[in-house]
């Protein structure tokens, strides 16, 4: 017995048509998903597609008249869109048109794919009932197998799928854009499924029984052409998958990085295979990367107490190349189950390679098939995955370690409860800075206090109590006592200021218009690198205006600073300076680190405009604020060289904001020519040589320069000389160099690197 009169029921949409609208309403309470953009459309697309298949099955089976079908379709496609458009009144959205593009290519296109699958199901099994639904879902599942297989077996992290659309892969990507690959993929979807749907409708309208109706439809020229178009779409999708970058095999990625190198262990077995770019200008960087990778593999094997076997390391020349060939743009990634690491060619001494390699090392403790811990056997445990990688990355050169950052976070009341991170929503609901830091500190503490064997078990089971014998409620207070120990983890007032600036910023899913900001910044940076400065400024100018309107004037100061830099590049130094003046005078939300950043850029722009006195005034004011060691060094160099007539053009071209993009090598060479005896000019050239060029010559220069410097410049000279000596295996010289000096934070790592360099076969 039904509660609704048949006449009323005939004038209501099918219940399945309401499901995406309800889902859209629920998404409004999920940070980052209540905005008409990529994330919301990705979540809705498969639901709309499956519900579209239900409508097609119902209509072809004769259960829907034309009126109810129209109403159901309007509900299916219009209700989620209406919900997200209404949500735009509450949640900032800086580009509704772009969001509509994602909606057309996502849910709307998926509805056609779902309807096509429903039509195929009906053609194969016209009977209504559970068997028909089971076949429909089996076909939907089967359609997902090829992209899933490709994701599992090949390097790329993105995917294209008829029911889901474009899946960017890397969770923290903030520049997800619509490109030709997505458009062309959806055009083929239309070419495949629209003809098949039309054929099924023609069969359903025939008065003949099912099989005779199919034979009769096959006899119609127009329908034969339609099926030929569908078959052609299938063929084209296979032939064009690689050229259109829908599916990229490992062989294509390897061809894009043609320089190969292998590292072997003492037995002669290959433990690392590196794929690197062929650019001759990167020859020194490639050699350093090989040495660095070998050392970090050996260090991780010792720390983990085991080795995973051979690891493939793909080192790209830049982020754009990495995005093109495997999908991740602003993040480096590992695929633990494939024993692969993908990252931009790192600078010598950078610890990020350790982080990514550690994901592969840890995979040997986790269950198959993905080599990551799974909570309840289903969901990847981000706390353990990223926390163990951060813990393995120790030490973190040039700054505080995660224990100190965690203590600062807690003192500033910015740390979420650690227990809350042990859930998918809790971890990803925080900024990556907060979540990664706390997880890394906790896992490092577990290793130091419970031993690696316990962490191995924890990684395998994702069960804290089973691995440690104690629940989180007992462990967390112990960890808190440890990180809050001021003697073990000292902090200065400047450290707290830096921590506040680092951890106050909301995460990707909490930032207004985060994806639009990322897209515009990516586009502007590409235009700037190609010399199209005015176009880059126009992109950021338009973004700035839309952001102001969307957030009622509460603009992120860092975005304003970036726009000021863009204005300067196109000769609008006055407008840029006025913009920064307004930020420094009126923005009450400016923290001390952001204030320093604005002062530094305003000083740079003053120098670009020819006012060296105003530049010095702003730079000097910035040195009194809690900026990091790198910024302090940069300011010292800029202040000194900008005071020299011959050095000022070099600072304007190389070190100051607002300069056109240029490669550093020619500028450094010119600096050496015009100021051959100037210590800071020699320092810049020597530093570049140690990290990228003739390291021996650079090291000799830095040794001579070290007594002339103090503060952060002296520390950096000591670190760079020690790094080069360790790389060369000159351990006696390294100890002599560090004797009597305050060694860098990574002194123990440098000694280990030196010992390894003397016996690299010990990998």
Write the layout of secondary structure elements.
Layout: H1 6-10, H2 15-27, H3 38-60, H4 66-87, H5 96-124, H6 130-153, E1 159-161, E2 165-167, H7 180-205, H8 210-218, H9 221-239, H10 250-256, E3 259-264, E4 270-276, H11 283-304, E5 311-316, H12 319-326, E6 333-335, E7 340-344, H13 352-363, E8 374-375, E9 379-380, H14 382-392, H15 402-411, H16 418-421, H17 424-428, H18 432-450, H19 452-461, H20 464-468, H21 472-483, H22 493-504, H23 514-529, H24 533-550, H25 557-569, H26 573-586, H27 592-608, H28 612-623, H29 629-642, H30 648-655, H31 664-674, H32 679-692, H33 695-705, H34 711-728, H35 731-738, H36 747-758
Parallel strand pairs: 4-5, 5-7
Antiparallel strand pairs: 1-2, 3-4, 6-7, 8-9
Give an overview in words.
This protein is mainly alpha-helical. The protein has four domains: 10-239, no CATH class; 250-504, Neutral Protease, domain 2 (Orthogonal Bundle), CATH 1.10.390; 512-662, Tetratricopeptide repeat domain (Serine Threonine Protein Phosphatase 5, Tetratricopeptide repeat, Alpha Horseshoe); 668-763, no CATH class. Helices cover 65% and strands 5% of the residues. The chain has 36 helices and nine strands. The strands form three sheets. It has a five-stranded mixed sheet with strand order 3-4-5-7-6, sandwiched between helices. α11 (283-304) links the parallel β4 (270-276) and β5 (311-316). α32 (679-692) packs parallel to α34 (711-728). The model has no long low-confidence stretch (mean pLDDT 89).
